[in-house]
Design a protein that fits this description.
heterodimer, A: 620 residues, alpha+beta, Penicillin-binding protein 2a (Domain 2), Beta-lactamase, 2 domains, six-stranded mixed sheet, five-stranded antiparallel sheet, 33% helix, 22% strand, elongated, B: 418 residues, mainly alpha, three-stranded antiparallel sheet, 17 helices, globular
């Protein structure tokens, strides 16, 4: 023991040190990051964000310089607070609060004191900045919008918050990131890569030269420009048509899936979210819970599709062999089932083409029932029907390149089993009969409606809708936007449906809103809808819905229009669809009567009803 | 078959090789830690690394001198060497130069000499001589006391400089004494005293006393069924408290402020402008910067920014950690462990007791430096300012350790079994 005591201690110390070294250098070593190193000062050089153009290379958004006053709390020396505050145009209390927050965020890293100075403030401040140690002015580039529309497509950029910084170490406090729309979706393309300089410091914080002679320093890389599929003229026109109405318009080029117009109403001027008033304006938009300008109704709104859905019922009927094109069904003014009746506004015998043209409820309920009954159980029927519908991009996210969206709802058999408490209670196909005419449980977003219209226009396939046309520079758009998505309905079954939709204009529900010189195929829709007022279910004026594509052969545009509480299909949505098609295909408007009606019309009175607190009448 | 004659000389090349490796590693790191913009190449003798090169050159002369002397010389003249060393320590109070609050240097024109660095070897020789004497019996209290006085004289002289770090090293002699038959309780008391000493200075007398009392009370409570005499506990606590409060009293009342500052710098308190633990924190950051392979020679960011105070002297191992990484640090630790265990192994092979005790003393002194210094840099031991042997900058330290080691190399070469 006496011989071993020292030897054992020596060996134990060796083991202890090796373990401690392992812990410090390997196990606990945070990933080598120069920005975390107190001996290294990091200076960023921000690149210009990429521009956005429309499909005709009209500039939508560029950049303007902006200046932020930044602070590194650790480096602040005692200063003339009063003078500095008067330069910054804030009170002493505000200044202290800003500094306190900056210190909590990090004493070593820069925080924003005053964001987005204007040029005048910048000029007066910049010559005095040398007096205030620890403060400096950081040049950034801000968005400069050339248009007052398309805010919902382009989205906006905002200062990163702590959650983003934690998740993505690329970003530092005060930097900007796309948080909505194309700005968010294509953030990495648009932002470019910021340049960085590492500067070695000694323990007194003095800069002693570039770290490792600048071998890690990088130059900023400008963001890439993006050409969108949006047609600025069409987009602007659509936005004007939607003034004083709520809803939206989606126009798609069927043979490419390119989104020509994506309009939600009400919207806002994108310039509102730039500059020093950004936060005030944003708050105002955010808290407008009645007209919801930040809510993209065409992507997020799930509506009952109403009669345009009948086109799909017809296609599925043909595909499933439940009906022949020429099968005649006689309508007696309603579809009777059990003791109930689903009424129809017309009478007489109809076949497929005339059924679509006249929008006969009886005809489509019959077709739907036959489809369901061709399966052993109503469950099987619903699931087969759903599977056909999903091939049109319904009931799930469409996969377009904007960061928001909804699935819509195409109910499953499980869903009906649940609400009817199967198997204690059985349910028949008649329980779901409202689906036949786009009411019931079926919900679609306006972009899904435009998409199935494009699939009908193409007679059986669609391209995933997208807003990216081209990334300018060596980059390509995702391959999935170039692949045909085939529906489960065979191409030959589309012709009668197309013909029916053509007859809608010729002698059907849209005959009064014909567009001269263009063979348009469309389908009106009128959807019942309800809201809750004081906990009671109250019916509101029907939604006005329209889907169309044109020309009939070799279609160039497929469109869906949704006007909340617009009463009936051709009244608002039909007119707007016609005007949009004419504008896009001809570049000018011949139906000026229709244009005047839409531009001057307002539904504000209708929207005010449910908030008035008084009893009101609907559908008038 | 040839038996080795008494004059047969056989140096332990492993010890010499490790010594050379450590000195070269030391110079490379001193170069990196002290590199400044106005340096004029490797051989700029106005720079710290240039001076170290001179000390290294002179060490070669010292080695030749130490090895050239007869092995018997060290045993025969141990007492003379010891007395000379004690006189050199005492002379400091008259001729000494004060640097940073400690009167520990002789100013010899261009450079300074720190006699306490040589006193370790001298004390080791004297103790070896005394204990190996045929009449000395370590079980005898009188002889224990004599050995203690032998150690106490340089300890007190060094304590008065004051240089608490160097004093701590004298605790190393407990190991050779224990090896030669000293009762184990002294080892326990010695280690306990060292712990109490550091704890008192680091945490203050009151807290340390409270801690000791609590531990003793807990121990008594645990063993209450064993009918241990409570007075034994009270005696032990009493002695501990007396020790703690005398350390505390001397520190606060006898020492002047500049002495206390020196202690406090050493302990990383008060004078340190960024709060307790700045040194340790910075050196730990430097070490963890290293990762597996380190940042490369002269590439350490903490080293370059001079974030670690005293980096070329006491904190030199943080440069090793940052620039040579885990692998480099591992090699240095293993070199030390290898050197010390080799010395212990060789000491056991000695034919006479004097060489064995001296060998053990060398191993123990190197071990304590190694343990306290690297422990401090890695943040597992309180801040105590002592150099890392052969690696830290400093002429006196390098020469002191060189003499200490090579006397043993010489003794080993002529006195050992193979």
């Amino acid at each position: 023991m006496r011989k071993l005591a020292l030897l054992i201690l020596v060996l134990l110390s060796g083991v202890l040190f090796i373990a401690r070294l392992f812990y410090l250098q390997i196990y606990d070593a945070s990933p080598e990051s120069l920005t975390q190193n107190s001996a290294i000062k990091v200076v960023y050089d921000y690149p210009q964000r990429g521009y956005m153009f429309d499909r005709n290379m009209e500039l939508l958004v560029s950049n303007q310089p902006s200046y932020d006053v930044m602070v590194v709390p650790r480096e602040v020396k005692p200063l003339d607070t009063l003078e500095f505050c008067s330069l910054l145009k804030i009170t002493k209390e505000e200044f202290k609060e800003i500094l306190r927050k900056a210190r909590i965020y990090s004493p070593r890293l820069p925080s924003v004191v005053i964001p987005q100075l204007n040029k005048a403030d910048f000029a007066s401040l910049s010559e005095k900045m040398y007096k205030y140690e620890g403060f400096y002015i950081q040049r950034r580039s801000l968005r400069d919008y050339q248009v007052d529309h398309s805010a919902n497509v382009m989205g906006y950029i905002a200062e990163v918050n702590n959650a983003i910084i934690k998740e993505n170490p690329y970003y530092q406090m005060g930097e900007l990131i796309g948080t909505a729309g194309v700005e968010k979706q294509y953030e990495e393309v648009l932002r470019g890569v910021k340049g960085v300089k590492y500067i070695q410091r000694d323990r007194f914080n003095r800069e002693i030269g570039p770290y490792k002679d600048g071998i890690f320093d990088t130059l900023p890389e400008r963001g890439k420009d993006i050409q969108l599929t949006i047609d600025a003229t069409l987009q602007k026109y659509g936005q004007e048509l939607m003034v004083n109405k709520r809803g939206g318009i989606v126009a798609i080029e069927p043979d490419s899936g390119e989104i020509l117009a994506l309009i939600t109403a009400p919207s806002y001027d994108p310039s509102l979210l730039v500059g020093r008033n950004r936060s005030k304006n944003f708050t105002k938009l955010w808290y407008d819970t009645i007209s919801k300008p930040l809510y993209d109704r065409v992507l997020m709104g799930e509506y009952p599709p109403g009669s345009p859905f009948k086109a799909l019922t017809a296609l599925i009927g043909l595909q499933e062999g439940a009906i022949e094109m020429d099968d005649i069904i006689s309508c007696t003014g309603g579809y009777h089932f059990g003791r109930r009746v689903l009424r129809c506004h017309h009478r007489g015998p109809v076949a497929m083409v005339s059924g679509i043209a006249r929008s006969c409820n009886t005809y489509f309920c019959t077709v739907y029932k036959r489809v369901m009954d061709s399966y052993p159980t109503p469950q099987d029927g619903i699931d087969a029907w759903r599977s056909d519908l999903m091939s049109f991009g319904l009931g799930d996210y469409l996969g377009y390149d904007l960061p928001t969206g909804r699935r819509g709802n195409i109910p499953t058999s499980a869903y009906y089993n649940k609400i009817h408490k199967y198997p204690e209670h059985r349910w028949s196909s008649l329980a779901t009969i409202s689906n036949a005419i786009g009411q019931g449980e079926v919900l679609l977003t306006p972009i899904q409606m435009a998409n199935f219209t494009a699939a009908i226009a193409n007679r059986g396939y669609y391209y995933t809708p997208h807003v990216i046309k081209n990334i300018i520079g060596p980059d390509t758009i995702p391959q999935k936007f170039k692949e045909k998505q085939h529906t489960k309905v065979k191409p030959e079954y589309f012709e009668p449906v197309v013909e029916g939709m053509f007859q809608v204009y010729e002698n059907g529900t849209a005959s009064s809103i014909r567009v001269p010189g263009i063979e348009v195929c469309g389908k009106t829709g009128t959807a019942e809808n309800f809201t809750r007022i004081d906990g009671k279910r109250v019916q509101l004026t029907d939604h006005s819905i329209f889907v169309a594509f044109a020309p009939k052969d070799n279609p160039k545009i497929a469109i869906s229009v949704f006007v909340e509480n617009g009463y009936w299909g051709s009244r608002w949505a039909g007119r707007i669809a016609g005007l949009m098609i004419e504008k896009y295909l001809k570049g000018e408007i011949t139906r000026t009567d229709m244009e005047k009606y839409v531009l001057e019309g307002s539904l504000e009175e209708e929207y005010a009803k449910q908030y008035s607190g008084k009893p009101f009448t609907i559908n008038r | 078959m040839m038996t080795p004659s008494k004059t047969y000389v056989r140096f332990d090349w492993l010890i010499i090789f490790i010594y050379l490796a450590l000195v070269i590693v030391g110079w490379l790191n001193i170069y990196s830690a002290s590199l400044s913009d106005n340096a004029q190449g490797f051989f700029d003798f106005s720079q710290i690394y240039g001076k170290q090169m001179i000390w290294m050159g002179l060490s070669v002369v010292l080695i030749i001198f130490v090895l050239a002397l007869e092995a018997k010389f060290y045993e025969n003249y141990a007492s003379i060497i010891y007395i000379a060393s004690v006189l050199s320590l005492a002379g400091l109070f008259i001729f000494g130069k004060t640097i940073a609050g400690a009167t520990a240097w002789y100013d010899l024109g261009g450079f300074s000499i720190q006699p306490s660095e040589f006193a370790k070897a001298a004390t080791a020789l004297a103790l070896s001589k005394y204990v190996s004497d045929i009449q000395t019996n370590l079980k005898d209290f009188k002889d224990q006391l004599a050995a203690l006085i032998l150690l106490a004289i340089p300890v007190i002289l060094i304590l008065l400089q004051p240089d608490p770090g160097s004093v701590l090293i004298y605790a190393a002699f407990i190991f050779p004494l224990y090896r030669e038959g000293l009762h184990g309780v002294y080892l326990f008391v010695g280690v306990g005293a060292a712990v109490l000493f550091v704890a008192t200075l680091a945490f203050g007398g009151i807290w340390t006393a409270a801690g000791v009392t609590l531990i003793a009370a807990f121990q008594f409570y645990r063993k209450r069924k064993a009918r241990v005499n409570i007075f034994n506990y009270i005696t032990v606590i009493g002695v501990c408290l007396l020790f703690i409060f005398s350390v505390s009293y001397i520190f606060n009342n006898v020492f002047k402020q500049h002495h206390r500052d020196r202690f406090n710098i050493v302990l990383g308190k008060e004078v340190d402008s960024r709060g307790i633990g700045y040194n340790t924190n910075q050196s730990e950051i430097a070490v963890s910067n290293g990762g597996w392979l380190g940042k490369g020679w002269t590439q350490g960011t903490q080293t370059k920014g001079n974030f670690v105070p005293e980096q070329h002297t006491d904190y030199i191992f943080s440069t090793v950690g940052e620039e040579w990484g885990f692998i480099g640090s591992l090699v240095v630790v293993l070199l030390f462990v290898g050197l010390i265990t080799r010395i212990i192994y060789r000491a056991e092979k000695q034919k006479n007791q004097f060489s064995r005790i001296y060998g053990y003393s060398v191993a123990a002194i190197l071990f304590l430096h190694f343990f306290v210094n690297i422990g401090m840099v890695l943040g597992i031991f309180p801040t105590v300012g002592i150099p890392l042997p052969f690696i830290s900058y400093g002429g006196s330290a390098l020469w002191g350790f060189t003499i200490l080691l090579f006397i043993f190399v010489k003794l080993d070469a002529v006195n050992s079994h193979y």
